[in-house]
Amino acid sequence: MKHLVRSQGIGAVIGVAVMLAVFTLLDFSGWWTVQTVSNVTQFASILAFVTMGEALVIMTKEIDLSVGSVYGLAGVSFITLEPPLGVSGSLLVALLIAALAGLVQGVAVVKGQLPSMIVTLGGLFTARGIIYVWTGGSVHNFSPDARAHPLTRLLGGELFGIEAATFWLIAIAALLGLLLWATPFGNRLLATGGGRESAESRGVRTERVKIVTFVLCSLLAGFAGILTLCNQPQTHVTLGENMELEAISAAVIGGCLLTGGRGSILGAILGALIVVSFRYELIALGAPSSWYITFVGVVLVAAVIFNQSLARRLGHSV
After folding, report:
1. Is residue 7 packed enough to be buried (19+ CB in 10 Å), middle (13-18) or exposed (0-12)?
2. How many C-alpha atoms does 228 have within 13 Å on its Cβ side?
3. Predicted confidence (pLDDT) per residue in 52-102, tens digit
4. Domain coverage including residue 42
5. What pairs with residue 162 in β-bridges?
6. Residue 318 lies in a domain
7. Per residue in 172-213, pLDDT tens?
């Protein structure tokens, strides 16, 4: 229990427990159905990929506002390049495009000593503009052969009635968890956000760490876009719009401090689950869409206050 209380994702754990209790009391028959749980799990898994990447960047005391557009750009690249390159080729190129976006932004932040908010805001508009110019405002759908391709089915199919995205999330979250907590790189990442000068005095190459996290963030966002289209092979040029706001909110709700040095992969996943669950349930209850935006704003502020208070109690600087 002591370890749980000290963990970075304790706020998200409490939030999920309270959320499930409230939904059970208000809408037991509507919430606890196979269809509802399946839909929420699927959409939460997609958002969780983007949130995990965002969380890594926030842990280094930076922020990435471009993840929604990179998500859309990778997805559109995947489906647009499929006819000439095939499913495998378009998948590889889409991931390379996502990685390049992260690399360019990471280098601009650390080498140009520019605020990450400004750089990635520019990345948001640039990637979205590329989508519109490249596609002319319309995107074709996957061909029947592409939908039946083994790789498409591996990324977007089902196993035992559970969407493939959920299994991919479990696997990649486990790898990221090991990276963060069981490798020197994870220690350097947290040290970079917790105290850059101190980390550099101990030989940590903080600039390299930040660049790698930006690349990982964009790769995870791009992979999420590809998973989405493998499952639902119809898209449009607005794919991923405003997703960056949900990802940042979910990361903070999941325990990330915007001042860096604190966060967790599990917390990011639970934060995504909270955001998606409330959106789904409010729609199911017939609430106006503005209620969802209000909820995100209120919970985000509450999460920041809770996380900072917990960090102070545990001796972390905020």
Report:
1. middle
2. 28
3. 999 999 999 999 999 999 999 999 999 999 999 999 999 999 999 999 999
4. 2-313
5. 159
6. no
7. 999 999 998 889 998 999 899 888 888 888 888 999 999 999
